[in-house]
Amino acid sequence: MTKHNPEKKTKWKYPLVYGLLILINVLPSITEKPYQPQDAQDVIVNLLMVAIKPYQVYGPVFHVATLLIVFCILWKPGKMGRLLAGYIGVNYLVIGLAQTMGQTQKYGFVVQLSALVTMILLGITWLVVAFRKDIHPTFKKLTLPDYGLLLLAVLAYWGPYKVTNGIIQPDFDPLLLLTSPDYGLTFCFTTPVFLLGLILFYPNVNQFAYRITAFSGFLYGLFNLTHWFSPVTRWMGFLHLPLLIISLYALILPRVARQTNQAVPELETKHGSSE
Questions:
Q1: Cβ proximity of 90 and 123 under 8 Å
Q2: Which of 2, 6, 224, 261 could make an SS bond with 240 (beta carbons 3.0 to 4.6 A apart)?
Q3: What is the pLDDT of residue 135?
């Protein structure tokens, strides 16, 4: 009789899921006015310039809500999993509605289908996690890398930039820590903060939701490396480093944790035999 190996099943599951996420992210945008395939990136750029403008007034809501959730977790460690997962799920659905569609001058009404499908997938997944209460947030003692990730997450939460004459420039106004419209309304500025929390709670998180969030973040971090190619958007490229770095760290963490857990029993066995 063949023994079931759960590790082997898991080994094949995530590459298939990652492949599906990649396929989703090549879905073409839907536009009111037709465009050539080579203009696909220009369509997205034009959309992102206008998409969240009608909702910018709600920026402070997401900043304050995040701070309240952090306080709740510190107050009742391990008992706020449903609240956290539900908030993440709802926030991704909000991002799907706010960031992925809008009226542009050049292409008319635009729907970034790939981002919309991704946000719906993430939103529903985290709402299922909330329903199952499959996350137990308890902060651990920070390591040196964690402090570095924390600084990157604060940068994303802050969103310190302004647009002057079409050029994206730094703007370190402290007030943006509570008013920046990008946090809570855009995937790239919100996900680093979510992932930092999940990293600090690891392994007490739902593995599937954790991994697809991290992989989606990594994909969008790679896509946004294009900002570095233009002096006009280079600062925006810098502000996307938290997404790229934290997502990559989150993807590597399960493997590092597994190898560490395997090494500890071996060390204990050797230590015991020497005694």
A1: yes
A2: 224
A3: 95
